Amino acid sequence: MLREFIEQLDKLPQKALTQCVGIDTDKPLIGIISAHNDLSVAHSHLDELAERVRDGVIASGANAKIQHISSVDCTLLRGQSAKYDLPSRDLTASSVEFICSNDFFDGLVFVASEPNVVAGMLIAAIRLNIPCAFVCVGTMSPIVIQRKERGFSYFYEQIASVKKGKASLETLSAIEANLPIAPGTDCERYGTNSFNCVVEALGLAVMGNGTAAANSVERKNIAYKTGELICKLVDAKCTPRRLLTQAALTNVVTFDLACGGSSTTMLNLIAIAKELSVKNVSFKSIGDLSKVTPTLLCQEDENACIMTQFHKAGGVYAMLKQLLDAKLIKGDVAAGGDTTLQALLEDVTVLNSNVIRSADNSVMPSSRLRLISGNVAENGAFAQYKGEPTFSGTAKVYANEEMAIDAILHREVKAGNVIVIRGEGPKSGPGMREIYTTLALLKGFGLSEKVAVVTDGRIADMYNGIVIGHITPETGERNLFSVLQDGDEIEINVTKGTIKSDVKAKELAKRYRDSEVSVGNFGNFYLKNWAKTCSTALDGCVYKSKSK
Question: Is residue 476 left, alpha or beta, with left meaning phi > 0 and alpha meaning psi from -120 to 50?
Answer without folding.
Answer: left
